[in-house]
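Work Package 4 report. The design task specified in the project plan requires that, given a folded chain encoded as structure tokens, an amino acid be chosen for each position. We show below one input record used in the internal validation round.
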């Protein structure tokens, strides 16, 4: 059946079909509350600087990833810690050494932070906010200098990481980091009558419902990844590997 106009609009907007259960949504919501509450409370007692405590806001963006998409690549410990620390360092460096207006320096800090996260393989979207706040946070943030990198940024990132590990651990299907993730249900082997090429988008959608955890890749991209992997496997077994093409 061809998609309706509404269906096309929804597809164009990239609206997530959101196949996860209400239980999973509730766990993610509670986890974010616990993570931010403890991070803000501990930071307030350790840092005791109102301007620095404001940085908990950038960790709020990390909480969305840690508790809503715990198995995403952008959420893993190196991405979280490295992304915040690298971005904080870049932001402070721009404030100290780059002349120019606030808007220019802010834009430069975010863009360089993205480049630095790419180079160090720790892309974490909230890192952009960490770099930006280093520039626009005002005198209270600027006075911290490079201390901003470790306290409050490093402290807050470490705290939210520890909370995420502890909170997600009781739930075997969403343990964090991904290396601790285990699933207990048995997946039966593929029947001999079903060929790999018979798997369609509907089957991938069913698998995502069975996983009951958000996957930070569109279903269509998962199907494309599968098809490219299948083509490469066929070429490899035929003894004629070719460079992958997208």
């Amino acid at each position: 059946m061809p998609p309706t106009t509404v269906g096309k609009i929804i597809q164009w907007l990239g609206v997530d079909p959101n196949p996860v259960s209400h239980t999973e949504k509730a766990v993610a919501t509670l986890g974010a509350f616990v993570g931010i509450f403890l991070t803000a409370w501990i930071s307030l007692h350790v840092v005791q600087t109102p301007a620095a405590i404001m940085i908990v806001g950038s960790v709020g963006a990390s909480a969305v990833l840690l508790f809503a998409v715990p198995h995403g690549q952008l959420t893993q410990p190196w991405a979280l810690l490295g992304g915040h620390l690298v971005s904080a360092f870049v932001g402070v460096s721009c404030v100290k050494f780059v002349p120019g207006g606030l808007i220019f320096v802010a834009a430069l800090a975010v863009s360089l932070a993205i480049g630095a996260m790419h180079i160090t393989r720790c892309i974490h979207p909230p890192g952009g906010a960490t770099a930006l706040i280093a520039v626009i946070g005002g005198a209270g943030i600027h006075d911290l200098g490079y201390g901003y990198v470790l306290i409050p940024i490093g402290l807050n990132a470490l705290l939210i990481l520890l909370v995420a590990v502890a909170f997600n651990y009781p739930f075997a299907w969403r343990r964090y980091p991904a290396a601790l993730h285990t699933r207990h249900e048995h997946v039966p082997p593929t029947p001999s009558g079903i060929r790999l090429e018979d798997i369609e988008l509907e089957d991938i959608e069913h698998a995502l419902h069975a996983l009951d955890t958000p996957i930070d890749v569109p279903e269509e991209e998962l199907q494309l990844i599968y098809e490219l992997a299948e083509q490469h496997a066929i070429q490899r077994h035929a003894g004629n590997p070719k460079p992958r093409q997208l």
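Residues 22-180 form one domain. Validation will be extended to a larger panel in the next phase.
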